[in-house]
Design goal:
The complex is a heterodimer of chains A (about 400) and B (about 500).
Chain A (H helix, E strand, L loop, with lengths): L14 H11 L1 H20 L7 H26 L8 H18 L4 H25 L4 H20 L9 H8 L15 H27 L7 H24 L5 H19 L1 H11 L1 H6 L4 H27 L10 H11 L11 H20 L4 H27 L1
Helix pairs in contact in A: 2-15, 3-9, 3-10, 3-13, 3-14, 3-15, 4-5, 4-6, 4-13, 5-13, 7-13, 8-9, 10-11, 14-15, 14-16, 15-16
Chain B lengths: L4 E12 L2 E12 L3 E5 L6 H8 L8 E7 L2 E3 L4 H6 L2 E4 L11 H5 L6 E2 L2 E2 L1 H14 L15 H14 L4 E5 L7 H16 L3 E5 L3 H7 L2 E6 L2 E7 L6 H9 L17 E11 L7 E11 L3 E5 L6 H8 L6 E9 L2 E2 L5 H6 L2 E4 L3 H5 L6 H4 L9 E2 L2 E2 L1 H14 L16 H13 L5 E5 L7 H16 L3 E6 L2 H7 L2 E6 L2 E7 L5 H15 L1
Parallel strand pairs in B: 3-10, 3-11, 6-9, 9-10, 15-22, 15-23, 18-21, 21-22
Antiparallel strand pairs in B: 1-2, 1-4, 4-5, 7-8, 11-12, 13-14, 13-16, 16-17, 19-20, 23-24
The chains are: A mainly alpha (about 400), B alpha/beta (about 500).
């Protein structure tokens, strides 16, 4: 998804200049991607190779799936104007309580439960979005209130107790793997995962070639062929390594497939669609967006409804992983999600950031957590390190921008 | 030997990137006089006062400032205040949620050992308020008193700093006549106590009423200083303010004017917050195809409010009146409808309301009509690049590439991006609000050319400006706008700087 966009009429712009502009505009994302790789290499060595063992990679993804989902929604809230949503941790717990009550106490089956949970998420979003977008009460305050309200309702609903266990099928949402329907050719590798990897690589290759052909047709400048090929080789290598990790363990986790689809869908939505552009425009300058005919209230409202629905989804995933509905669930999740967005290059004032960036941010934090856990570093130190990483990432961005301006 | 002049500014020159804001300006103010400083918007009055008060510190300008014959080098406002120079800006610098007393002694607190003495604060405040004839409890919050009284508090604040030279920048622009009179009388009283005042004002009748000497500034140069005696009239001052040559500042054009295609009837708009306050009062005007119609008026006369209320009710409430396009009445209740009806509004404030400064040229241009380059809601990025390159070339937007952020462009190039954005919406009617504000002369010429081309394509242009030469150089017909009303309509032949100024002055007198 991370392609170098380049553009410009050959007669006017040099390729170098537009690439320079692209890099300047996305410096934090590239920097964080490099940082992620560096952190991974560091822990790979420090843990004696345990970090990137296929089983641990799968674990890392399962452990952090809820952060990925929340970070996607948080990105949109932040983009729309630097607003954050503090209520998502409590919403995760609240949805868990509802799922527990429906499935364990009232014996509902799984699909209706999920539908009800997502609908309740939507209602929560409509409630908060109304105050934020139409009454213009600061999002910070509305969602702080939501954080208290939904935590309170969770405890009330669960009467302070933990509901457990959930049926096997519900647990599969976050613990299951996609069955290897093509498996059994006398290899231990998961064939389905390999096939999916190959398909992804093929889609990437075809779309890149098509894009390049179109640009040449329009007479826009394109990357020089060697660099273009190098770019494809790097992406192929990444897909290859990842496919191997999946194939060498149990295959593709169900939740990874879902999160993957969400990332692709929201990335596409934010960068390619008209409404996605409106979000960026509003975050960049609300007044100008309004005078360009954009219904900024509607955009903000949508951001919070969407966030709450994704929080409900994260609630289902987390409850399934925990195999319990706990009144304490989801604490500080909002902070993980917010930190992921900022580490991944989002601006605290809105209008800058990407879904992919937020996922990179979430991965940085996830790898830090996981790596330090393997090394036996206590959770107290982990928190400290994560805090400092957040500060350093944002400071790096702010300072490098100041330099490029002067 | 003491100088006859309390203040002398000698050969002050101040450069901004690409613009010479002040060019060898001289200003001599006698002790104890009220000295009026007049000139058009952008002539350099405020810049000169900012140099004097240390906002532009010593070293950023060339020339000398002498107080009582002694050359001063102010590093900041604190330095100039030590010499007794206090400036009261058009935008008042009071803090709304602090009391009058707290505001009076801000940065000048009545305290001992860093602990504020509230008794002394309010006792001294009461004494100061008495001096400026303001009977208010000093513990009242600033937000609870009117603008006229706030202006008096500003003066009292200056007195608290032991002011010798009081500079007032358009002090009466937001005041009603009673408050204005009060303020002017107060200036005369202070004069008797030996306080020198410099009055910057557009209201020439006020200048004539209170000032002893008048200095006229035009295009960053001192034109003349003369004594205000019985022989001086408003026309005499206007002549000094506007007498400049207009050769070659505007590209030539042969207007091809068609039938009327846009009409606004009985347009009335109320203030969005203050109930019952009319901002636009029963305005009627029309525009022909291919015509550039000027709306001339001073800042704050309601021109922007008029334009924005027409543009999808972006300003005001209880809006009444009709908008007629091509003979049909149209509904324009929001910006989207306005754009769909072919109306475009280029804001006077491109930075805060025109552009997404943190995004690139490519994304800014198509924003107001993204659907044009989208299919099934998905933006065609190739078309987007194509459009951006096209406008970059056509309007000569100087930039490293279309991926350059608009925040890093110069004012003139930013304005070209804003114009591109609105031309992209295929408008029939373009409302341009101060389209050349803060732009250097070369870029201005380019923008004038773009505007002329648009008119030649048959579009109707509504050209709002407070710069008279620009109105005269560009417009086929001029509406004179003042205090929310149209107070005159002049053909190209009738329009002159004098006739426009006269319309405004006359209407000011009528309101009195």
């Amino acid at each position: 998804m991370e392609t170098v966009k380049n553009s410009g009429n050959k007669q006017i712009t040099s390729i170098g200049q537009s690439i320079k502009d692209t890099i300047r505009n996305n410096i934090r994302q590239y920097a964080m991607l490099l940082a992620l790789v560096a952190i991974m290499i560091f822990f790979q060595i420090a843990t004696g190779g345990i970090l990137l063992v296929p089983m641990n990679v799968a674990n890392l993804i399962l452990q952090n799936s809820y952060v990925f989902i929340l970070a996607i929604g948080m990105t949109i809230c932040i983009l729309a104007g630097g607003n954050i949503d503090l209520s998502v941790g409590s919403v995760v717990a609240f949805i868990g309580a509802i799922a527990g009550t429906l499935i364990i106490n009232m014996k509902y089956s799984i699909v209706p439960t999920i539908i009800i949970c997502l609908l309740i998420g939507a209602l929560i979003g409509i409630w908060q979005g109304f105050w934020i977008a139409y009454m213009r009460i600061p999002a910070f305050i509305v969602t702080l209130a939501g954080m208290l309200v939904f935590r309170g309702l969770t405890v009330t609903m669960l009467k302070g107790l933990t509901l457990s266990p959930f049926p096997e099928k519900f647990q599969q949402i976050s613990a299951g793997f996609i069955p290897d329907v093509f498996g059994g050719f006398g290899t231990k590798l998961n064939i389905t995962a390999i096939i999916v990897g190959l398909i992804l690589a093929a889609i990437y290759l075809i779309s890149e070639i098509k894009k390049r052909a179109e640009r040449i047709k329009y007479n826009f400048d394109v990357l020089p062929l060697p660099i273009f090929i190098a770019q494809i080789v790097v992406v192929f290598a990444a897909i290859g390594i990842f496919t191997y990790w999946m194939a060498a363990y149990k295959g593709i986790p169900v939740i990874l497939a879902i999160v993957g689809l969400l990332i692709i869908a929201y990335s596409f939505f934010t960068t390619k669609t008209v409404q996605g552009r409106y979000i960026y425009a509003m975050g960049g300058n609300e007044k100008a967006a309004k005078l360009s005919g954009i219904d900024t209230n509607k955009v903000l409202f949508f951001a919070y409804v969407n966030m709450a629905i994704l929080a409900a989804f994260a609630g289902i995933a987390f409850t399934s992983r925990l195999n319990a509905a706990s009144p304490q669930a989801g604490q500080n999740f909002e902070l993980d999600a917010i930190a992921s967005c900022f580490i991944g290059g989002a601006s605290a004032y809105g209008g800058v950031g990407t879904v992919v960036g937020a996922i990179i941010g979430a991965l940085v934090m996830g790898v830090l957590n996981n790596g330090m856990s393997i090394l036996g570093v206590g959770s107290d130190m982990q928190m400290t390190v994560k805090g400092l990483v957040l500060l350093v990432a944002v400071a790096f961005d702010v300072i490098s921008k100041k330099k490029s301006r002067s | 030997m003491m100088s006859e002049y309390i203040l002398e500014m000698r050969n002050i020159t101040k450069l901004f990137p690409g613009v010479k804001a002040l060019d060898n300006v001289n200003l001599k103010v006698k002790k104890g006089e009220i000295h009026a400083l007049v000139g058009e918007n952008g002539a350099g009055k405020s810049t000169l006062m900012n140099v004097l008060s240390g906002i532009y510190p010593y070293g950023t300008y060339s020339g000398d400032i002498a107080i009582n014959g002694e050359v001063c080098k102010f590093r900041d406002v604190t330095d100039s205040e030590k010499k007794g120079i206090v400036i009261i800006h058009q935008e008042l610098a009071l803090i709304p949620y602090l009391s009058i007393g707290e505001n009076l002694f801000l940065r000048n607190e009545r305290s001992s050992h860093n602990i504020i003495s509230w008794n002394k604060t309010y006792r001294d405040a009461a004494a100061l308020l008495k001096k400026v004839n303001l009977s208010e409890n000093p513990e009242t919050l600033i937000k609870d008193i009117g603008v006229g009284k706030q202006q008096l508090v500003e003066i009292a604040k200056a007195l608290a700093k032991d002011v010798k030279i009081l500079i007032l920048d358009e002090p009466t622009s937001a005041l009603n006549d009673e408050d204005s009179d009060n303020l002017l009388n107060l200036l005369i009283e202070l004069q008797k106590e030996g306080i020198t005042s410099i009055l910057i004002s557009h209201k020439l009748n006020e200048v004539l009423k209170v000032s002893n000497n008048i200095t006229v500034i035009r295009d960053g140069k001192t034109i003349e200083t003369f004594e205000n005696d019985e022989n001086v009239s408003e026309d005499r001052i206007i002549k000094g303010m506007v007498g400049r040559e207009l050769t070659n500042r505007f590209p030539s054009r042969k207007p091809k004017i068609g039938e009327v295609n846009f009409e606004v009837k009985n347009w009335t708009v109320f203030h969005p917050l203050i109930e019952g306050r009319k901002i636009i009062k029963d305005v009627n005007f029309k525009v022909h195809k291919g015509e550039i119609v000027g709306i001339s008026g001073l800042m704050g006369s309601g021109r922007t409010e008029l334009a924005m209320s027409i543009f999808g009710r972006s300003y005001g409430k209880h809006i009444s009146g009709e908008i007629i396009k091509d003979g049909n009445k149209i509904t324009v209740h929001n910006v989207r409808q306005a754009i769909n009806h072919g109306i475009a509004y280029v804001t006077e404030d491109r930075k805060s309301a025109g552009l997404n400064l943190i995004d690139d040229i490519k994304s800014n241009i198509p924003l107001a009509k993204l659907m044009k380059i989208s299919k099934r809601n998905i933006v065609d990025e190739n078309k987007e690049i194509h459009v951006a390159e096209q406008y970059r070339k056509k309007l000569n937007i100087k930039s490293s590439s279309i991926l350059q952020k608009t925040g890093n462009l110069s004012g003139g190039n930013q304005q070209k991006v804003v114009l591109s954005k609105w031309i992209f919406t295929d408008p029939d009617i373009l409302i341009l609000d101060e389209p050349t504000r803060g732009i250097d002369v070369g870029a201005k010429y380019e923008i004038y050319k773009i505007i002329n081309d648009l008119a030649d394509e048959g579009k109707s242009i509504i050209f709002i400006s407070s710069e008279l030469p620009e109105i005269l150089g560009m417009c086929d017909r001029v509406y004179v706008f003042n205090e929310g009303r149209i107070v005159g309509e002049l053909s190209r032949e009738e329009a002159s700087q004098e006739s426009i100024m006269r319309c405004i002055m006359q209407s000011n007198r009528e309101v009195v």
